[in-house]
Specification:
Distance between the termini of chain A: 51 Å
Radius of gyration of chain B: 13 Å
Strand order of the largest sheet of chain A: 10-11-9-8-12-13-14
Oligomer: heterodimer
Helix content of chain B: under 10%
Number of helices of chain B: 1
Strand content of chain A: 15-25%
Shape of chain B: globular
Order of helices and strands of chain B: EEEEEEEEEH
Strand order of the largest sheet of chain B: 1-2-5-8
Strand content of chain B: 25-35%
Structural class of chain B: mainly beta
Number of helices of chain A: 14
Largest interface: A-B, 33 and 33 residues
Chain lengths: 387, 95
């Protein structure tokens, strides 16, 4: 089986073909957005981190930005830097890291004689050339083994586990059965059900790592002294019928399908094996989506029963719901309505339908997010408290 | 139409796939089993398929999702008024 993708020099394939404009720190967010807005074919990735980063955030943010830049949906990357003498996240490190993938990378520095306008103008000219080069690439049939499927959920109800997550977990099974890879994340939303995932680990080391990331996350939350009931599960989760974090987790893990767990990744890491992986991320969907994109996911499905509107700048996000009224009302957010009874009686047929939609989107069909252009929100995960 | 589902054998709760009224005899999907519902159970919420004593584990999809903080009779609505999670929240309270 195949989809129509963009072949990259490192052997991966993109489902999209953008020029990525990536900021190395918050000081360049405006410049990044400015360039991306003015040059067709460019997408921005901004974040709030800056030069004050310390370990381990410094290493994790650096690795995440590099691996975002390596995502096969980006044909070329322009890294935008303030140009300080002591940058927290060195732009050259980011650029040379991304360049390992063989794609063209350049750096635009805004602290330059001539002012910000002039620096941005030079950045736009570089981006213009990159966009022109990227537009020469054509889609061609590529095997499904080059599909990397991220699964996400946001706005869970008791039916998310039984229906929408079961549907996307089955679609993920289809991807893996066809030689592809994929994974899920959101560590706190596995608490209470981690033993089910760990039991599917390919070996003891992966099993230990799975249990460790959950234990460490839970310890960290406990040490904060806050009561998270009302945050996770959140008020909407509770109103809809989820009574505990464990119950939410039982539904959450269904999105990970049924295949053996091959790898557990740290935030911003790229998997080495085919098959299923888990990424240690927060339950907050924005940094979680970034984790999936940094892992090289070129397509994402996202179950949401509260019609979460945002997508991701350069990875198509297919939004699925089991709520018919939402699907009709929020037609410019949601892409697929999951049939509740059909999923309960024949999950493989529903998973197959979603898988077929994924192949269409991977081959160029636009998601609602992409059509409306609601793809700007982005965030990274850091663990060191702000000073 | 599927009215209710019990996800794994051994679960002591079912999930309502339609809003259930008190007095309803509900058929569990895939089983030759009917449960009499004794109080309203909103759409997607849980009900007990057997008596659950205070302190007993609540099991959904084969996983412990919390424990009963009251005695729960068969057919009652199960939610935060009569059960609590054991992870994160309960630990905070020293439970």
């Amino acid at each position: 089986m195949e989809f129509l993708g963009y072949r990259r020099k490192d052997g991966l394939a993109g489902t999209r073909n953008y020029v990525g404009i990536i900021s190395n720190g918050v000081c360049t967010s405006d410049a990044v957005n400015w360039i991306a807005r003015e040059v067709a074919g460019c997408v921005p990735f901004t974040h709030r981190e800056n030069c004050a980063l310390v370990s381990p955030d410094k290493e994790v943010v650096t690795r995440t930005l590099i691996n975002l830049g390596k995502n096969p949906n980006l044909a070329c990357v322009l890294v935008v830097s303030a140009g300080c003498e002591n940058p927290g996240i060195a732009p050259d490190t980011i650029a040379s890291g991304i360049a390992e993938s063989g794609k063209p990378v350049d750096v635009c520095t805004i602290h330059q004689p001539g002012g910000i306008r002039s620096a941005i103008s030079r950045g736009m000219n570089t981006a213009q050339k990159m966009a022109s080069d990227a537009s020469r690439l054509k889609r061609e049939p590529v095997p499904i083994s080059l599909l990397r499927h991220g699964v996400e959920c946001g706005g869970s109800t008791p039916l998310s586990g039984i229906v929408t997550n079961a549907a996307q977990g089955t679609a993920l099974d289809f991807v893996i059965e066809n030689g592809g890879s994929g994974g899920f994340s959101e560590t706190p939303e596995v608490i209470g059900a981690e033993h089910i995932i760990a039991a599917r680990a390919v070996n003891d080391e992966v099993k230990r790592k799975m249990l460790k990331v959950v234990r460490d996350y839970e310890k960290k939350l406990m040490a904060s002294g806050h009561d998270f009931f009302g945050s996770n599960p959140d008020p909407q989760n509770i109103t809809e019928g989820l009574s505990s974090l464990e119950e939410k987790s039982v539904g959450d893990i269904r999105k990970g399908g049924t295949k053996p767990l091959m790898e557990v990744l740290g935030y911003g890491e790229i998997p080495e094996s085919k098959g299923l992986f888990f990424i240690d991320t927060p339950g907050h969907d924005l940094p979680s989506l970034t984790g999936l994109a940094a892992a090289g996911c070129n397509i994402i499905t996202y179950s949401t029963e509260c019609a979460v509107p945002y997508g991701f700048p350069f990875v198509p996000v297919i939004k699925i719901t089991a709520k018919k009224d939402h699907y009709e009302k929020y037609f410019d957010i949601l892409d697929y309505l999951v049939d509740i009874e059909k999923t309960i009686t024949d999950v493989r047929s529903v998973g197959r339908e979603l898988f077929d939609l994924m192949l269409e989107v991977a081959s160029g069909r636009k998601t609602q997010n992409e059509i409306i252009g609601y793809t700007g929100a982005c965030d990274l995960w850091t663990v060191v408290p702000m000073t | 139409m599927i009215e209710a589902i019990v996800l794994k054998p051994g679960d002591n709760i079912g999930v309502a796939l339609v809003g259930l009224n008190a007095g309803a005899e509900v058929k569990i999907y895939g089983q030759e089993k009917w449960i009499e519902i004794t109080e309203p159970v909103p759409y997607q919420h849980k009900f007990s398929v057997k008596r659950i004593d205070t302190g007993e584990e609540i099991i959904k999809d084969g996983v412990v999702i919390g424990k009963a903080i009251q005695d729960i009779e068969q057919g009652q609505h199960v939610h935060i008024h009569n059960m609590t999670g054991l992870r994160l929240k309960a630990k905070m309270q020293g439970g």
